[in-house]
Every structure is written in structure tokens, then in C-alpha cells.
Amino acid sequence: MIYKVENNTKLNGTIKINGSKNASLAIVVGAILAKDIVILNNVPNITDIHDLLDILRYLNCKVDYNDHILKIDGRNVVYKDLRIDKIKKLRASYYFMGAFLALFEKVNICKPGGCNFQNRPIDIHLNGFEKMGAKIIETDNEVCISCDNHLKARQINLSFPSVGATINLILASVLLEDTTVLRNVATEPEIVDFIMFLKKMGANIDGEGTKTIIIHKNNRLHGCTYTIMPDRIECGTYLIYGAALAKKLTITNIISRQVRSLLSIFIEMGIHMEIRENEITIYETNNLKPVKIVTGPYPSFPTDLQQVICPLLLKADGQSMIIDTIYSKRISHIEELKKLNANVKIVDNFMLIDKSDKLIANTIKCNDLRGGAGMLLACLMSKGVSYLTSAELIERGYQDIVLNLSSLGVHIERIIDNEKI
Ligand code: EPU
């Protein structure tokens, strides 16, 4: 898919943020542990969710998704081989490892796909399962996990606070007969939301949002109704679009404290805004100051927003720098920006961004979801008509982005047939 983009106006209006993609992905898989009926509100209508729901149907779950409300009936969930193509389509499919170990004490699964901006190992997940007594056979593309004896509750120290490994180990532990302690876990809000959901299903867990999580023994899970938190990365994305292009843009349905690291950068840059608990308004600002951004685990600046903010930094008076300590090779957007006449370069692992106020439209490519969202902003900042290819990657994580931008005054068109440009 291609987006044809031209922008001659300042963005003006309001955007309502959807439910969190990454919280939803974990929660949807977690729902099968109840073997009951779970109703989830505020589930975003994005392709990653639809791909996950196809896997649930394959596992004999009944799924009904309408108007952001998802009903999962997992009463007849069955064990199946997960060496199937759908697993390769998205990253979050690795949560079936933890969920299957909890339900069936075994899983044969393809390695996950999703945004492959660099090698994304899953050794911390697998080491954790091994410590719980699982036997692992790993090839380049598949993982087979089984237990000679039952899976055991353990005390596990993660070598790095991985979001996915934290959630996967919670999934694997939540039905065990003894207490599990996970240390050096990730503290991202999506993990807190995931644990709040498990608690609503009856789990007894302590420590969410801290570096140590305790999963108490003998949890008996049951169905529930739960509302997913707002997407802080979607929120951050539109805030950045606003900082670059808005006359006045209000972002609603958010939890402002979850984007604190971005707001601190905005303050340093001198961006005019009004911050309320669940709503932020961004005003047109000139004379932006350059900044240095270092990504890190929450509450540091999120890696998922560094590619998005990169084009905004082209407007600052001086040289800005981005260092992604989570994914040091998440840099393919830099080459695309150069095609728009941007003054950007990579020195070692530093992305250096100099003021470039004459961006010129061109045909550029989305290489991954967040990079795509950044390139869309860059196209909107360029003079003329740009074509953004592989734009379907953006729709893996941003619901209605074309409709939203159109409502703010942008000329943007979705071209399904590549031959039309
Ligand atoms: N890591 C390992 N071994 C592991 C797991 C992680 O070395 O077993 C390393 C990674 O290579 C990376 C760091 O640890 O350098 C952090 O990775 P993490 O496991 O936290 O990432 P993830 O769980 O695979 C989730 C999000 C990503 C987001 C990262 C970081 C989901 C489905 N994905 O990935 O979201 O970038 O956390 O916050 O929740 C996106 O939404 O576009 C996206 C890529």
C-alpha cells in the first residue's frame, strides 16, 4: 500500500487515542488462560490484533470483535502445533509460548516475526522457561518446549528488563502451585495493564510497575470484563506530529504521565503546550531548540518514538542527537530522510540531525511500523507530493491514521494498487 501525501495546512483539531496495541496483544493471549468468557473494551482496530485473533480462532476459541469490544470465549481452547505462518507475522505471537506452557506444559512454535529492524533475540524468555524446568530445542526458525516433569515456580532474575520476557514469564507462572518471584523485570505501563487484567481474572500478583513481581501460588482464573489502557506510543506520535505541524492540536483519551519523558523533551525544545491529566494541547511553536535523546527502558524515552521524533528535530535551530540504547540498529529511517533532502547522518551509533528547513517531496519507504510513522511525518513536512510505500506497516499499529490526519486538514490518500503512482 502507498500513501500519497501533501500538506499545505497547519494541523488543527482533536485526535482521540485508541487502546494500547502492545497491552492488547499481551492481554488477548492472556485471556485464553481463563478458559472462560473474557470481554475486552477499547481494543484497537489494527492489523496486528486481527492477525492475533486468527490464531485464537485456529485454537478453537470463539472470537467476536465489534466496535473496539472483543469477546473471547476460550472454554474450548485446544492444544495445536503453532509452527504456522500466522505466528511469523507478528512479534507478540511469542506470548503463546508462556500461555501454552501454562495450559499444556508444551509448545511447538515458529519464532515470532513483526518489525525486524534488527535481530531481536528471545534468549531471556527461553532462559526463564528453562529455569522453570522446561526443555528447549531451538532451531533458526522454530522453538519446541516441553517439560519432562511439571513446570516449577522459581525465583528468576532477568538479565535485562525485557518487556516480552517479563510478560511471557508471568504467563507461564500464573497457574503454578507455588509462588514465583521475577526480578529485574520491565516496568512499562503495558505490563502494569496486563497484570491488572490478570488480577481482574482472579490472579494474586504483587509488584506491578516495580522491578520485582511476585506471582502467588494457586491462582484460579475466571472470565472478566476489562478496559485496555490508552496507547502511549500512539499518543506520543500525534503529539510529535502536533509539535511539528499544528496550529492547535488536542490529543484526548490519554494518561499524560505515561508520556512524561517525551514532554520533558518538548519542554527542552520550547514547545508550547497545555498539559492536563488525560488531555494535552499543542500549539504552533517556532525557534525550537536542539536536544539530545537517549532511549531506555520505561520511564526513559521510548525506543518506539525515536524514529517518529527524528523529523521534528529537523526543525530545531542546531544539531540534535538520538542514541537508541534499546535497539541500536533501528536506524533505517535515516537513509529515507536523506531522500527528502534532510541533513542527517549516523556516526557510530549516534543519529545526528541538523536543521533542514527545505525538505523536498519524494518517494520514500516505510521499513517498519514506527519508522513508517516517522516517515509519514517527514512527508507531511516536505514541499510537494510525496509517496510513502509499504504503508501497510503503519496500519499494523495506528488505527485510522489516514482518517485522523484528513480530519486535521492533511491531503492524504491510500493507494492500494502500487501501479497507480
Ligand atoms: N532482548 C534480548 N533478549 C531477549 C529479549 C530482549 O536481548 O530475550 C533485548 C532486545 O534485543 C532489546 C531489549 O532487550 O535490545 C528490549 O527488548 P524487549 O524484549 O523489551 O522488546 P520486545 O518485548 O520484543 C516490546 C514491544 C516493542 C518495543 C519494545 C521495547 C511488543 C509486542 N513489542 O518488544 O514494540 O519496541 O518492547 O519497548 O510489546 C512496536 O510497538 O513498534 C514495538 C516494536
Choose one word for the global shape: globular
The top-level CATH class of the largest domain is: Alpha Beta
Q: What is the assigned CATH homologous superfamily of the largest domain?
A: Enolpyruvate transferase domain
Order of strands side by side in the largest beta sheet?
21-22-1-23
Major β-sheet annotation? 4 strands, mixed
Q: Number of domains in the coordinates?
A: 2
Number of DSSP helical runs: 13
Strand tally, please?
23
**Mean pLDDT, rounded to whole units?**
96
- Beta-strand level of the residues, as a percent range? 15-25%
The radius of gyration over CA amounts to 22 Å
Q: Output the structural class.
A: alpha+beta
Q: What is the CATH T-level topology of the largest domain?
A: UDP-n-acetylglucosamine1-carboxyvinyl-transferase, Chain
pLDDT < 50 runs, ≥5 residues: none
Q: What is the CATH architecture assignment of the largest domain? A: Alpha-beta prism
In helices, the fraction of residues equals 25-40%
- N-to-C span: 11 Å
TL;DR of this structure?
The protein is an alpha+beta fold and 421 residues long. It is 31% helix and 24% strand. The protein has 2 domains: 207 residues, Alpha-beta prism (UDP-n-acetylglucosamine1-carboxyvinyl-transferase, Chain), CATH 3.65.10.10; 207 residues, Enolpyruvate transferase domain (UDP-n-acetylglucosamine1-carboxyvinyl-transferase, Chain), CATH 3.65.10.10.
